[in-house]
Write a structure and sequence with these properties.
Order of helices and strands of chain B: HHHHHHHHHHHHHH
Number of strands of chain A: 22
Largest sheet of chain A: 6 strands, mixed
Number of domains of chain B: 2
Low-confidence stretches of chain A: none
Mean pLDDT of chain A: 88
Number of helices of chain A: 18
CATH architecture of the largest domain in chain B: Orthogonal Bundle
Structural class of chain A: alpha/beta
Strand content of chain B: under 5%
Number of domains of chain A: 2
Distance between the termini of chain A: 38 Å
Strand order of the largest sheet of chain A: 6-7-8-3-9-10
Radius of gyration of chain A: 25 Å
CATH superfamily of the largest domain in chain A: P-loop containing nucleotide triphosphate hydrolases
Oligomer: heterodimer
Structural class of chain B: mainly alpha
Chain lengths: ~525, ~325
C-alpha cells in the first residue's frame, strides 16, 4: 500500500513556476531518492510534503500522505502530523539544533508536544531513541559539544522519536565526511527496515542514490524527467538528462602526461601549533598541533591531490604554503626561497602561487567588475601591465577559461556558479603562477558544471605545464585529476604515492577506510552517449 | 561556569584600576586651580598657597592618587571643599534617588519593550508590526526631556495626579515611588523604543535560523517555535543593550533630574564641576564607573546563564 502519493503537484511563488506536474509514489519500507542538480525542485518537493512551504508559495495538485491530502489539511492538523506521521532531517547538522537546549530536551520535545505524557517519561524515551541512533554521549550535552555526525544523529532521533510513517531526509550527508556519511546512511537504512517506514531521500549525489535507493526520481527544472526502480533505471535510462547526470558524475578527465621535473615546492618536516584557551587562570596555554611532521614535494608541472576529512589540517596546510601564517617547525620553500619572510608572505615567492577557493561567490568582492577582480594578483608584480597590455592580459585570461573578453565589464552576480569558478581560475592564472592550490574548488558545483571545470583544468595543463595541489574530500575527483595523492589524518600525512597505486592498493588502514566509505557509482552496463 | 565567572571578575578588577588612573589623570589636567576659584579673583597669592596646603594640593601627584584610592577602598571619599561635608554623605543622600529611579525606568522599559518586540516580530509586516515600529521610531527620535514636559503638563498640571517635581524622601515609600513615576516614564520611553527594536530584529534573525525549521518539522506551531526556541536565543543582544541602558539611566538622568527638581547624582556632579569641587567629581565619577562595571559583570553572567556555549569558554 502506498504511504505517499504525489500527483500533479505544481507550485509557484509569485510569478515564478517552481514545480510542474510532479508525480511520485512510494510504499512502506521503501527508500525513494529524488535527485537532480541545484534548482531542480527537489527540496521544495520535500517541503511541500511537510506542509512547510515558504511564504507566498501556491501549490496545486494532490499530496496524499497516510490517507490525508497535505495540501487540503489545515495548519493545526499539519502540526499534529509533523513529527508524528512524518519527520524530516535537514542538510546542515551544525545549525539544525537549538544551541541553548540540551539534546535530550530537544528529542523529548517531539514526544511531549504530541503525546500526553510526563516530562520524565518523555526524557527516558528520548534517551532510548538517542541510543537507538547510535549516539554514545549523555542526553544532557549541548549541541556545541558534539561533532557534525553526532548532531545529525540527534536530528534523526528527533525526527523518528514517534516512529513516523514517512521520513524525509534532505541532503542528510552532504555536509559530512565520507566515513561519517557511510555510517549515517547505514543508520537510515537500518531504521527504514526496523520501523517499516518510507524514506524520501533528497540528494544530488548519484553514488549515494545508486547505493541505497529502491527507486529513483530524477528532477530537472521542476519536472520529473525520469523515474523507476533503481536497478531498471541504472541499466536502462531513457532521458538524456539522466544520462548526462550519470556521465558527468563518473566523468574522467584526460590529463596530459608529464615528464619528471625538479621539485618546485618543498615542504620539510612542518609543524603548526595553535594556542588553546588556558586551563587555569594564569597557567600556560596548551597547544593544538594542527600539522605534525608534514613533508612532501611538488615537482614542476606536477598535479598532486590532498585528501582527508574535515579538521585534518588541509586548510592549515594551505595557509602555511601560501605564507599567510608562520609555522612553528620545519621549512616551506618554493624554488628554494622560503614562503614566509619575517612577519608576512614573501612576495617574491607569493607571486608564483595562486589559490582557488571553494565558494566561487563569496571569494569575490560583489562591487567590483570582473576586470578588476581578475587583475587583483597584479599587485604582487613589480611592473604590472598597464593600459593596452592590461586589457590584453585580461582578454587572454578570460579566453583561457572559456569566457569572452566582453565579460570583463560585468559584475560577479551576473554569472552562474560554474562561470564564477572559471573567473576564479582566470584570476589565479593571470600572473602565470607556477603553482595553483585548488582548495575544494569544485566541491560546491553541480556535477555537470564540475565536469566542465575539471575538463578546463586538464585543458590548461595541455597548454602549459601547470603544477597544482588539489585539495578535496571527494576521492573520485582527486583520482581523476592528479598524478600523485597524499592522504592526511589528524595533521599527519599517513600515505602518499602515485594516485592509481594508492587507490588500487592502499597501504594505510585510514586510506582503506576512506576508500571503502566513499560511495561508488556502479559500473554502467553500456557506454553512455554524451549529450 | 566558575572559571568563566572568575575570568570576568579578573577583568572587572583590572577595569576598575585602569578607570581610577584615567579619572585621576583627567581631573589633574583640567585647567583651573580649585583654591584660586574658591577664594575669588581678588585673593592674595599667599592665601591661595595656604589653602592649597590645607587641601593637600601641594603634595605630589602620586601621594595624592594613593591617598585617594586607599580612602575609596575604606569607604572614605574625602571631604567636599565647597559643601564642607564628607563626600560619602553627599553621595549616599543622592544615590537613593538616582539608583531607584534608574531601576524603576529600566523595569518599565523592559516591561514595555519585550511584549512589543515579540509581538512585532511574530506579526512581521502586518499592521501590528508597522504600528509598533512607527511608535518606536517616534520614541527614538523624541528627546526624553520633551516627554518629561508633556507628562508634567498632562498628569501634574491638568489632571493633578502627580506632583510636578521634588522628592519627599523615603520616609513614605509610596509617596517616594509616586514622585519618581513621571521621571521614570520619561526616562523609560525612549529606552523602551530602542530595546523593542533590538528585540524585534534579534528575534527575526533567530526565526530565520535552521533550528526553527527543525522545530517546525517536529510539529511545533509557529507560536510555539517562537516562544520555546527563538526568544531565549534572541536575548543575547538584548541583554547587551539593557546593560548599556542601565549605565545611561544612572548617570544620564541629569536633564530629567533638572526638569523634576530631583536631588540626584546627575545634579550633584553638575554642581561640583561648576564649583571645581574636584574631590566630589572624582568620587562620583568613580562610583558611576564602578556601577557600570558591576552591571557589565552581571550582564556577562547573564550571557552565560542564557548560552551554554559561553560557559564552556574560559
Amino acid at each position: 500500500m502506498s504511504i505517499l502519493q504525489i500527483s500533479d503537484l505544481s507550485l509557484r511563488i509569485g510569478p515564478v513556476d517552481i514545480l510542474h506536474d510532479v508525480d511520485l509514489s512510494m510504499n512502506h519500507g521503501q527508500i525513494v531518492a529524488i535527485t537532480g542538480e541545484s534548482g531542480s525542485g527537489k527540496s521544495i518537493t520535500a517541503l511541500s510534503v511537510m506542509g512547510l512551504l515558504p511564504r507566498g508559495a501556491v501549490a496545486e495538485g494532490q499530496i496524499m500522505l497516510d490517507g490525508a491530502d497535505v495540501l487540503q489539511t489545515s495548519e493545526p492538523d499539519l502540526c499534529q502530523m509533523r513529527g508524528n506521521t512524518m519527520g524530516m532531517v535537514f542538510q546542515e547538522p551544525m545549525t539544525a539544533l537549538n544551541p541553548v537546549q540540551t539534546i535530550g530536551a530537544q528529542v523529548a520535545e517531539t514526544i511531549l508536544i504530541h503525546e500526553d505524557t510526563t516530562r520524565a517519561e518523555a526524557h527516558a524515551r528520548a534517551s532510548e531513541m538517542l541510543e537507538r541512533v547510535g549516539l554514545k554521549v549523555a542526553p544532557t550535552r549541548y549541541p556545541h559539544e558534539l561533532s557534525g555526525g553526532q548532531r545529525q544523529r540527534v536530528v534523526i532521533a528527533m525526527a523518528i522519536a514517534l516512529r513516523p510513517k514517512l521520513l524525509i531526509a534532505d541532503e542528510p550527508t552532504t555536509a559530512l565526511d565520507v566515513t561519517t556519511q557511510a555510517r549515517i546512511l547505514d543508520l537510515l537504512q537500518g531504521l527504514v527496515r526496523e520501523f517499516d517506514m518510507g524514506l524520501l531521500l533528497i540528494t544530488h549525489d548519484l553514488a549515494v542514490v545508486s547505493d541505497v535507493a529502491d527507486q529513483i526520481v530524477v528532477m530537472q527544472k521542476g519536472r520529473v524527467v525520469e523515474s523507476g526502480q533503481t536497478q531498471d533505471l541504472l541499466v536502462n535510462m531513457q532521458h538524456p538528462y539522466t544520462k548526462a547526470l550519470f556521465e558527468a558524475s563518473s566523468h574522467k578527465v584526460q590529463l596530459p602526461a608529464r615528464a619528471d621535473a625538479p621539485p618546485l615546492l618543498t615542504v620539510d618536516q612542518v609543524a603548526r601549533d595553535y594556542p588553546l584557551p588556558r586551563k587555569a587562570l594564569l597557567g600556560p596555554r596548551p597547544n593544538f598541533r594542527a600539522l605534525d611532521d608534514v613533508s612532501f614535494e611538488i615537482g614542476h608541472g606536477e598535479r598532486v591531490g590532498l585528501v582527508g576529512e574535515s579538521g585534518c589540517g588541509k586548510s592549515t596546510l594551505t595557509r602555511a604554503i601560501l605564507g599567510l601564517e608562520d609555522v612553528q617547525e620545519g621549512r616551506i620553500s618554493l624554488d628554494g626561497a622560503p614562503v614566509f619572510a619575517g612577519k608576512q608572505p614573501n612576495l617574491a615567492v607569493r607571486r608564483k602561487m595562486q589559490v582557488v577557493f571553494q565558494d566561487p561567490y563569496s571569494s569575490f568582492n560583489p562591487r567590483h567588475r570582473v576586470d578588476r577582480l581578475i587583475t587583483e594578483p597584479f599587485h604582487l608584480l613589480d611592473n604590472p601591465p598597464l593600459g593596452k597590455a592590461r586589457d590584453v592580459a585580461i582578454a587572454k585570461a578570460l579566453q583561457d577559461v572559456g569566457l569572452s573578453p566582453g565579460d570583463a565589464r560585468k559584475f560577479i552576480h551576473e554569472f552562474s556558479g560554474g562561470q564564477r569558478q572559471r573567473i576564479a581560475i582566470a584570476r589565479a592564472l593571470i600572473i602565470e603562477p607556477e603553482l595553483i592550490i585548488f582548495d575544494e574548488a569544485v566541491s560546491a558545483l553541480d556535477v555537470s558544471v564540475r565536469a566542465q571545470v575539471l575538463d578546463l583544468i586538464a585543458d590548461l595543463c595541455r597548454k602549459r605545464p601547470l603544477a597544482y595541489l588539489f585539495i578535496s574530500h571527494d576521492l573520485s575527483v582527486v583520482r581523476s585529476v592528479t598524478d600523485r595523492v597524499m592522504v592526511m589524518q589528524a595533521g599527519r600525512i599517513v600515505e602518499q604515492g602515485k594516485t592509481e597505486h594508492v587507490f588500487t592498493t592502499p597501504q594505510h588502514p585510514y586510506t582503506r577506510d576512506l576508500i571503502v566509505a566513499a560511495p561508488q557509482l556502479p559500473e554502467l552496463p553500456h557506454a553512455l552517449d554524451p549529450v | 561556569m566558575i572559571r568563566y565567572a572568575l575570568g570576568r571578575l579578573t577583568s572587572l578588577i583590572i577595569s576598575l584600576f585602569v578607570a581610577s588612573l584615567v579619572i585621576f589623570a583627567v581631573i589633574e589636567v583640567i585647567p583651573g586651580d580649585p583654591a584660586a576659584f574658591m577664594l575669588g579673583v581678588n585673593a592674595q597669592p599667599d592665601t591661595i598657597a595656604a589653602l592649597r596646603a590645607e587641601m593637600g594640593l601641594d603634595q605630589s601627584v602620586i601621594t595624592r592618587y594613593f591617598g585617594w584610592v586607599t580612602g575609596l577602598l575604606q569607604g572614605d571619599f574625602g571631604q567636599s571643599w565647597t559643601y564642607k561635608t564628607p563626600v560619602a554623605e553627599l553621595i549616599s543622600d543622592r544615590i537613593w534617588v538616582s539608583l531607584p529611579l534608574a531601576i524603576y525606568a529600566l523595569i518599565l522599559s523592559t516591561l514595555i519593550a519585550f511584549p512589543a518586540g515579540i509581538f512585532a516580530a511574530s506579526r512581521r509586516g502586518g499592521p501590528g508590526d508597522v504600528t509598533i515600529m512607527g511608535a518606536t521610531q517616534l520614541g527614538v527620535a523624541i528627546p526624553n526631556f520633551w516627554f518629561a514636559m508633556i507628562l508634567v503638563l498632562i498628569f501634574a498640571i491638568n489632571l493633578r495626579w502627580f506632583s510636578a517635581g521634588g522628592f519627599p524622601g523615603w520616609d513614605n515609600p509610596l509617596q517616594a515611588l509616586k514622585s519618581l513615576t513621571l521621571p521614570a516614564i520619561a526616562l523609560a520611553l525612549p529606552q523602551a523604543a530602542i530595546l523593542a527594536r533590538v528585540m524585534r530584529s534579534s528575534l527575526l534573525d533567530m526565526l530565520g535560523e535552521d533550528f526553527i525549521r527543525t522545530a517546525r518539522a517536529k510539529g511545533l506551531t509557529r507560536r510555539q517555535a517562537l516562544w520555546r526556541h527563538a526568544v531565549r536565543n534572541a536575548l543575547i543582544p538584548v541583554l547587551t543593550i539593557i546593560g548599556l541602558q542601565f549605565s545611561f539611566l544612572l548617570a544620564g538622568g541629569i536633564i530629567i533630574e533638572q526638569v523634576f527638581f530631583l536631588p540626584g547624582l546627575g545634579r550633584l556632579i553638575f554642581q561640583s564641576i561648576s564649583a571645581r569641587d574636584l574631590i566630589v567629581v572624582e568620587s562620583v565619577v568613580m562610583l558611576l564607573v564602578f556601577t557600570v562595571i558591576i552591571v557589565n559583570f552581571a550582564v556577562d553572567l547573564a550571557y552565560a546563564a542564557v548560552d551554554p556555549r559561553l560557559r564552556a569558554k574560559a
